[in-house]
Amino acid sequence: MGQKIDNRFSILRRIAKDPTANTLAISAASLVPLMAMVGGGVDASRYYMTETRLQAACDAGALAARRAMDADDFSNEHKQVGLNFFDQNYPDGTFGLDGLQRDYTATSEGTVNGTATGTLPTSIMGAFGYNEFDLEVDCSAEINISNTDIMFVLDVTGSMSCDSNGSNCSNGPNSRINSLRNSVLTFYDTVDSATSSSAQIRYGIVPYSNQVNVGGSLNTNWMATSHTYQSREADWDITVTYEPETYTYVRTGNGYSYQYQGNIETNDYGVTYNECVDIAFNQDRSEIFVSADEAGFTLVSSSGTDPRISQYTGPVRYNRQTFTGGTYYGSNDRCRLNFDEEYYYAESEITVTEGRTETREFFWAYRPVEFDLTSLYSTGTLTTPTGWEETNETHTWNGCIEEADTVASATWNPVPTGAYDLDIDLVPSNNSERWRPMLPSLTFLRYNDGESWSDSDEWVQSDITGSTEDKVNASTTCPKAARKLAEFDSRSDLEAWVSEAEGFRAGGNTYHDFGMIWGARFISPDGIFASENATAPNGDAISRHIVFMTDGELVTHNRLYTLYGLEWWDRRVTSDAGYTQRQDRHAERFQAACRAARNKNISVWVVAFGTSLSQNLIDCATPGRAYSATDSTSLDSAFREIAEKIAALRLTA
Hints:
- It is a single chain.
- By secondary structure, this protein is an alpha+beta fold.
- Helix content is 26%, strand content 32%.
- The chain has helices spanning 7-17, 22-68, 76-89, 176-192, 273-282, 376-379, 491-497, 512-523, 530-533, 567-570, 582-598, 615-620, 632-646, and strands at 98-106, 112-121, 132-143, 147-155, 201-208, 226-251, 256-269, 288-292, 298-303, 308-329, 334-372, 381-384, 393-396, 401-402, 436-437, 464-467, 483-486, 542-550, 561-562, 565-566, 603-609, 626-629, 649-651.
- The longest helix is centred in the N-terminal third of the chain and has 47 residues, at 22-68.
- The relative contact order is 0.14.
């Protein structure tokens, strides 16, 4: 009986005898390293994704913990902030990570250090004896600041003397300006704690109200040599009279209208016979002046003032004496003579010497007056003959200014040609571009005599002459002198600078444009301070920031003495004495100054304190950098947050 052969063996025999079947064995043998390669790639990819995510979570936690720190002191609260941020960025179990451990510590200098560890099971490589990967990442974060210029533009108007809710405006301990002092110091502390020893940190401060005090920072070449102020000058009412002192008469025409006056006898004693004959015949007795009719004179010429010599022509009455006989008595040397006497008229030339008498009555003329300012810059004072009867008055310059020439325009985007005041990079080269000293004691309101200076219905645009009234000087508030960008030697220097004792006080009206124009001008890398602002000593880039704080909306008035003079009289901002569009035009100027700063890559931070964050303030700020603070605590928080953002948190290895 035959044996049945299993087909499986038949197939194997055929394969063994078929040389092409070798590829199957080879393929089977190669599956093992192929699995190792693919599995290694998959698990390696999982490893790197997990490590990257773990590193990002560590970094986020370190940054968050450092941001939460007020200074260099690290607490469990700060640590928990870091852990929370870590967990938000890397939830437990992500990518199958086991045994996750994370921790944050800090150095005494305030650098936050973090670590994260865990075990990642393999998915394929376990078949080859590799069951897990050990993961560990490090991270650290510190607040580090590079070269930075910070210009505080601070509202110091009258409302800053009030508490944050607007009450108790007595400049007390809870006043807004006192809160501002504290917040500025908080800002300084925050930045100072993050400052690298190799970095330059400079601060400038522009206090503003209805003026800015910048004169002490300006080169005299940038100041006007002359300027026209709404002022006054002498207006003497002088009455001059002339009184005749001497007359001389020269007959130029023939006599007429003779009138016989009779015979006269003369007696002369102590004379000789010959002298008697001389008296009788040789002395001219034909033109003896009698009188003159001045009403009939005609003036020919006049010269001189004191005395005045006047030449006239006209009829003069003369006396003519004709000798008719006489006797000489030698016994007593007596000469007795007889004459016929007659009067007549004749045309004559008359010379009158007149003495001058002057009566002076003093008045003031109130009008625009140009004054030479060249002596002011060396002495700080200007002497003018503007007192009573032209007595000298001394006017002291306190550092506040009038702006360069501008344009009374309602449109400020773009800035009109000729508006030099809105050119933050202006370097003056002529009087139109130069700044002028503000001199309140030389500047007067012009209003009708006998009326109230506060009644705008009585204000006068034209000159007032012949006024004996002493008009009211222009009203203004000149804040503390601005500080150019410079490093503070210490915190106490800044604390002293913003103290009330050093002149950092509240007063005046709110003109945002004034503060922003000069804040931008002081921090610009170009313009009048280019040599100081363009580069830093270490050669690194400079980060520039304006921190603008105000407690109110624009509050303007057309009779205040501001950067643009007296608006009702000077009309540099408006064309109708500032009655309409005054607020809007100052708001537009404010926006133009804000744009000018932002266009130079200067970050503009705005804080509204105790007031609404208006659209005008929001539009001024760099996007996302406008803040509102209702009280001293929130103001402090806003300043701290701005300082931290300026400090530019960065990761370090």
